[in-house]
Automatic annotation (TrEMBL):
This is Uncharacterized protein. It comes from Flavobacterium pectinovorum.
Length: 117
């Protein structure tokens, strides 16, 4: 059964432990590019740096490119009900929470692909 991560740090640790971290980065790059939001995380990026850069990217998209942000969430297939549960009063916290939801969905795709191939 898919292990639902509690937070970003656990998710990234699980990805590394299962040797799927590089696949996770590739999936993120692929989906951002499908959404025409060119992002190219190098495969050598550390989990901490990935977390920071993804948070910054989501934050900028919410602030300056909201339509593209919504398109990205659609392409990645982030749960609309989970997005609606978030409190949008603080954009920094919102971007952090959305980053986790994005990572969680991308991790789910990679994990299922490996385990149900």
């Amino acid at each position: 059964m898919f292990p639902i991560p509690e937070n970003t740090d656990f998710l990234l640790a699980d990805a590394e432990k299962e040797n799927l971290y590089l696949s996770l980065i590739e999936q993120i790059n692929k989906d951002f590019n499908l959404a025409n939001e060119g992002i190219d995380f190098p495969l050598s990026i550390s989990p901490d740096e990935l977390k920071i850069q993804l948070h910054e990217k989501i934050y900028r998209m919410i602030q300056y490119k909201f339509a593209e942000y919504l398109n990205l969430l659609y392409i990645i297939d982030v749960s609309e009900s989970e997005i609606k549960k978030l409190d949008g009063s603080d954009l920094v916290i919102l971007a952090e929470q959305v980053s986790f939801l994005v990572l969680k969905r991308e991790w789910q795709k990679v994990w299922f692909r490996k385990n149900f191939k």
